[in-house]
Amino acid sequence: MQSKLITPEIKAFLISIGSVSVDPSLIPRARGSTAGPGAGTSSVFFRSGNKRVRLSINKDSPLSILKVEGEGDVGVFYQGKELVRGKLEPAPAHCPDQAFITLCERCVFDCKYCPVPKLQGHVKSDEEVLNIIDEVLRAGNLKAISLTSGVETSIEGEVERVLKLLPALKKYNVPIGVSVYPTEGCSRKFYEAGASEVKYNVETMDQEIFKKVCGDLSLDYILDRLREAVDVFGKNRVFSNFIIGLGESDDSVRDGIETLAQMGVIPVLRPVNPHPLRAGDCFTERPSPERLLTLAKLEAEILKKYGLDPGLAKTMCLKCTGCDLVPFVDF
Ligand code: SF4
Fold it and tell me: In what order do the strands lie in the sheet with 98-102?
């Protein structure tokens, strides 16, 4: 068959399923994902043209990746039909082309959709972090360094952890992104220590849902920190994950995108990832392809109005684009 590239409709369909079965021999290099709600699963990154999608590996998925004709080429198949053709990308540290590192894989908070507090994983030493970055550098894939972290004991402690590490990262001479739970004034400190971009996650812009799922935290507080971040880093350099599928209405998503964009923040519309360790802890519903497309187009219109462009991102999720339909990159 003719090579088939990813359209926004196909990417929305793949994301809505979110998983794929794949013969391990086809995977260039698999590592466990330890960043946020994708924690504890292994994934593949499929690239077609200049578009990318991340799918978690699940042998029972209705999607499968199979070898097709052509050097390194694979196809994504659904019900025996090839939907799209491309290649699998290596992801030496969480995602392609970046060293995206979770410093602390534990969290004292208890956001109801997130498996990290249940996994209570490893806390990396600075030496381990630098070794991972060196490994990505050696593989020839280091275009950015992105740092994220759960909260081991305190929010202030995580900000300090990043600030202590940042001076040692300057030598790599690549853009650095930081995504942690913020403290007042931390953006200025991150910026002065060499960060290029920050991502502070609102998770949802629906106040009622926020109270139910992130009850230990405050949405207004995060919005204040995002405002500070835009003052420091400028437009197009401040992002925020906005989960889709926690029971919010499309109207509340539109209002939430508008509020963030007006502040100069680019929302990352992230389909919820229902995790078995969180079964029954809160409402989660993976969005349909139609809903993903509708909301991404809505986001594109609003971002355009405020002069925001996710295609300018240098680090973290908007650079990777694997998990989301990204305006001005995917369509
Ligand atoms: S979009 Fe973000 S969370 Fe998803 S694989 Fe890429 S860097 Fe990781």
Answer: 98-102, 144-148, 176-179, 197-199, 238-244, 266-271
140 is a domain residue: no
Task: Write down the number of H helices and E strands in the chain.
Answer: 10, 12
* C-alpha distances in Å from residue 178, one per residue of 54, 156, 265, 279, 331: 21, 14, 15, 29, 26
Residue 53's contacts (CB-CB under 8 Å, 6 or more residues apart) are 6, 11, 14, 15, 45, 46, 322
Q: Which helix (H) or strand (E) holds 133?
A: helix 126-138
* Cβ–ligand 1 contact at 18 (below 6 Å): no
CB 274 within 8 A of CB 300: no
Which residues lie across from 270 on neighbouring strands? 243
Give me the residue label for tokens 């806390």: 123
**Which residue owns the Cα nearest ligand 1 atom 7?**
317
Q: Dig out the tokens for 95 from the structure.
A: 């995602």
Rounded to whole angstroms, how far apart are CA atoms 171 and 205? Answer: 38
Spatial separation of the C-alpha atoms in residues 191 and 209, rounded to whole Å = 32
What's the structural domain count of the chain? 1
- Top mutation candidate among 97, 178, 316 for ligand 1, by most atoms within 8 Å of CB: 316
Residue indicated by tokens 């209002």:
255
Domain that holds residue 32: 8-89
Residue 25 lies in a domain: yes
Residue range 120-139, pLDDT digits in tens? 899 999 999 999 999 999 99
39 C-beta closer than 6 A to ligand 1:
no
- Mind listing the pLDDT tens digit for each residue in 216-260? 899 999 999 999 999 999 999 999 999 999 999 999 999 999 999
CA distance 314 to 331: 18
